[in-house]
Amino acid sequence: MDALAHEQEQKWIRAILRRCDRAAADALVRAYYEEIYAYFWRQTGNQEDALDLTQECFIAALQSLPGYDRRKSGFRTWLYSIASHKLADHRRRSRPPALPLTEDVTVPEDFTAIVHDRALLDLADALVSREDALDQTVFRLRLYGKCTFAQIAAATGQTEAMIKSRYYRLMARLRKELTDDG
After folding, report:
1. pTM
2. Topology classification of domain 1-95
3. Inter-residue contact 84 to 118 (CB < 8 Å)
């Protein structure tokens, strides 16, 4: 985000906090709506769920805005943290049955190069759903939210080194489970 856009974002936040400015709230939501909707849609594959989760995310963000501290993270990173929590809640409420592993699923060396393959992504997501909450958050923010390790660290309150370590260990476990050798 460029400096001008960041400055505008902070003006909207101040207007919302000081005057409960509806126009500023609307502008802030509009600035991120499509991005957050796409984040949810890529993970749920369902338009209705994505719309509901997007709405829940922005309601929670606006309600929690007094607790937002721009010194700890950027607004976008903070918003993705809320989105990640909403997605985890959604998955707990509607946990699908575990997908069986099939022997014909193989993963190339560069796992992230094939995330566009929806069937493999769904299988990987089912496997990740068995991991602890932090690993799930790291996975989803990195692949679906396209967040940097620094942004994920800020959103989770962990160090960047810890986030990288968890991400790469998770990727190794996924490769092992998804290959014929594992």
Report:
1. 0.61
2. Rna Polymerase Sigma Factor; Chain: A (1.10.1740)
3. no
